[in-house]
Amino acid sequence: MENHTKATEFILTGFKSYPGSQLLLSILFSAMYVITVVGNACMVLIIRMDSKLHTPMYFFLENLSILDICYSSVITPKAALTFSLGRRTISYNGCASQMFFFSLFGTTEAFFLAVMAYDRFSAICNPLLYQIIMSKRLCVFMVAGSYLSGCINCTIQTGFTFNLSFCGPKEINHFFCDVPAVMHVSCSDTLVNEIVMLAVCGSIIVGTALVVFISYGYIIITIVRMPSAESRHKAFSTCSSHMLAVALFFGAAFFMYAQPGATSSPDKSNTISILYTIVIPMLNPFIYTLRNQGVKRSLKRLLKRKGFL
């Protein structure tokens, strides 16, 4: 008979097999977290301080930067402390909370990327109607809808996962409480949970990815038909940064959650998880700054105003 006593804590064993690199991992995670917070906070400040950037595209970019700070804050500080201090335990409620907010922000980001793709589709394919289509009310509704979708998914994932029994060694082979890793520790039959995760996460990833791909399909067709090389270059430059961010995020998300057997390779998932939980939120402000002429011009104006240039 299985022992269904409630677990009070878990042990995060991700990267524990590399004892000599714990301090290095802590320094690396801490550095990436600082860069993430500073980079995304600067992006928010640049957008808010320049009235020329008060457009739907930058409204979504500002919200993405805020989201990335929250997204990384759920995982990275705890992981850095775990590596530096060696305290790998996390309480049952702490693990559930971490999973809840990680799923919330991760799902919301997927919807944000789809919304941003639709925004670029409207701007390039329907430029004369852009201001009418992308009204302030619709933009706020899209952001709120993205968070609501995230809330629904994280409630389902966290509720189903922590309804399982944990009666054996409560060692999670991960550096945070990810859904597949926690399921792997359970002594219950996780078939239903895996089906739910595959159905819900798969539909979210595929659905939002379809919006992105269809939007960019129309965008590419429109750009190719533009008469001048200058207009094609300008249109492509506004989309290239978003396309890179989309490729990184959806590639990692599909590998982790939208394919069967996601719980069967926890060792491999540790490395992939670093990409979408830490690296992508850190890279996003640089991707959008270096590839976005509007942000670069705004940054130069702000630096000149402050006397740095």
Can you summarize this structure?
This protein is mainly alpha-helical and 309 residues long.
Helix and strand sequence: EHHEHHHEHHHHH
Main β sheet profile: 3 strands, mixed
What's the helix count?
10
Strand order in the sheet with the most strands: 2-1-3
Report the strand count: 3
Which structural class matches the secondary elements? mainly alpha
Beta content comes to under 5%
Distance between the termini: 72 Å
Radius of gyration: 21 Å
The residue ranges in which pLDDT falls below 50 over 5 or more consecutive positions are: none
Return the average pLDDT rounded to an integer: 85
What is the 3D shape? globular
Highlighted features:
309 residues; mainly alpha; three-stranded mixed β-sheet; 10 helices; 74% helix; globular
Structural overview:
With 309 residues, this protein is an all-alpha fold. Helices cover 74% and strands 3% of the residues. It has 10 helices and 3 strands. It has helices at 22-49, 56-85, 92-125, 130-133, 136-161, 179-185, 191-224, 229-257, 266-290, 293-305; strands spanning 9-12, 89-91, 171-172. Strands 2-1-3 form a 3-stranded mixed β-sheet. Helix 1 (22-49) runs antiparallel to helix 2 (56-85). The longest helix is centred in the middle third of the chain and has 34 residues, at 92-125. The mean pLDDT is 85.
